[in-house]
Specification:
It is built from twelve helices and 17 strands. The strands form three sheets. Strands 1, 2, 3, 4, 5, 6, 15, 16 and 17 form a nine-stranded mixed beta sheet that branches. Strands 7, 9, 10, 12, 13 and 14 form a six-stranded antiparallel beta sheet that branches. The protein has a two-stranded antiparallel ribbon with strand order 8-11. With 401 residues, it is α+β, with helices and mostly antiparallel strands. It starts with a helix and ends with a helix. The structure holds (2S)-amino(hydroxy)ethanoic acid (HGY) and manganese (II) ion (2 copies). The site of one manganese (II) ion has 4 residues, from loops.
Length: 401
């Protein structure tokens, strides 16, 4: 099978045109937004053109199905609220190119997927979480974004595209090509990372309820300032986690909403996202205990009400050895001596799909290790090398993977 690098790159740039934003190659295409749905319509057209049968499930996961048993390739085409042109998009367009090249070569059978809301506007990888049975549609529907919109409402915007549920039994395995989103390959000068494991994640909203009041007249010692509670919590937490974490453990408060968010008002409420990631489930649990206890202690000391949202999460998963070996072979053929095995610190749809199918992943370098920013980029020659490794692995595995 012969992939066409120019055709692949042209499609990748075309996908970026849906929601193109910011300087460089930025994209704003969150799940179920108008650009996301427009992009899915364009992708569906591309799938049809290469002879795949388009199916869209109730969540908005978009499949292009080959006849008979097939290997499933893909990723997601939604973006972060400020994202780059490659996160997810690369894996979807690479899948399209390999499926097209496979058709031209007379096999093997390759299907394509773009999962919905991988970037977690509503949760953590919600599209593939529902497809894989990790979440039910009903439990996903009540999840809300930071603006208070429910997923069940948001997904109505693409209801006209829905054809029905897509069974996983027709697929023999799943392979996802992605950018690394970290600095390892760029720093070492290597071209390909073959993923060994994907870390686990926990994510929940935390709310401190204090007393909204006048910022000029309320003495400091009488205040119940919700921002001060968040600030104390963060400082204490960083200190307490130190005994539990490893250099690979990460935790982030990435979204804070203060009410009413005005210069002259002592904030009465703070709602913030608390997310933590690690390769070890026990450590994730120990961190959860510390997070909950620290928040309770701050609430008690500062006279705050405290509540926690639902705890969302995914467990760490290992990649399938046989699919991995096919990628390692491909990496050695395309970039001899310039690839490595490595874990993934980012979450991916592959984690959910691993509940149903053997899965594997490969990475190409991210320039400067940047991602989840408009500045995200990868050398185009490295992008093409990634597709070539994927095609090599698919040829080796055949449709009976
Ligand atoms: O956050 C993640 O790891 C993924 O990009 N959604
Ligand atoms: Mn991604
Ligand atoms: Mn991402």
């Amino acid at each position: 099978m012969q992939v066409d690098g120019d055709r692949f790159l042209a499609d990748l740039h075309k996908l970026r045109s849906f929601g193109a934003a910011g300087v460089g190659k930025g994209v704003v295409r969150p799940g179920y937004s108008a650009p996301d749905i427009e992009a899915r319509r364009w992708l569906a057209g591309q799938m049809t053109q290469i002879g795949l049968r388009v199916e869209v499930d109730a969540m908005g996961n978009l499949f292009g199905l080959a006849d008979g048993p097939s290997l499933l390739l893909g990723s997601h085409s939604d973006s972060q609220p400020e994202g780059g042109w490659l996160d997810g998009a690369l894996g979807v367009i690479a899948a399209l190119e390999v499926a097209r090249a496979a058709k031209e070569a007379g096999g093997p059978a390759v299907s394509v997927v773009s999962f919905q809301d991988e970037e977690g506007r509503f949760g953590v990888t919600t599209g593939s979480a529902v497809w894989s049975g990790h979440e039910t549609l009903a439990s996903a529907d009540v999840l809300q974004d930071h603006a208070g919109v429910a997923l069940g409402t948001a997904r109505q915007a693409m209801a006209d595209m829905v054809t029905g549920e897509v069974a996983s039994e027709v697929f023999t395995g799943f392979i996802e090509l992605h950018i690394e989103q970290g600095p390892s390959l760029d720093t070492s000068g290597e071209k390909i990372g073959v993923v060994t494991d994907i870390v686990g994640i926990r994510d929940m909203k935390v709310t401190f309820d204090g007393q909204q009041n006048h910022a000029g007249t309320t003495p400091m010692h009488l205040r119940r300032d919700a921002f001060q509670a968040v600030s104390s919590f963060n400082t204490l937490l960083n200190d307490r986690l130190r005994n539990v974490v490893t250099p690979q453990t990460v935790w982030t408060i990435g979204h804070v909403s203060l009410h009413p968010n005005a210069s002259s008002i002592v904030p009465g409420r703070a709602v913030f996202s608390m997310q933590w990631r690690d390769a070890d489930t026990d450590r994730l649990a120990r961190m959860e205990t510390i997070i909950r206890e620290t928040a309770a202690e701050v609430a008690q000391a500062q006279g705050m009400g405290l509540s926690f949202g639902p705890l969302l999460g995914l467990e760490p998963v290992a990649m399938d050895p046989r699919l991995r070996r096919a990628l390692e072979d491909g990496a050695e053929a395309v970039a001899p001596g310039k690839w490595r095995n490595m874990p993934s610190g980012a979450l991916h749809d592959a984690t959910n799909v691993a509940r149903l199918l053997p899965v594997a992943m490969l990475f190409v370098p991210s320039i400067g290790g940047l991602s989840h920013t408009f500045e995200e980029d990868t050398d185009e020659a490295d992008l093409v090398a990634g597709v070539q490794v994927l095609a090599h692995a698919v040829s080796r595995l055949g449709s009976a993977a």
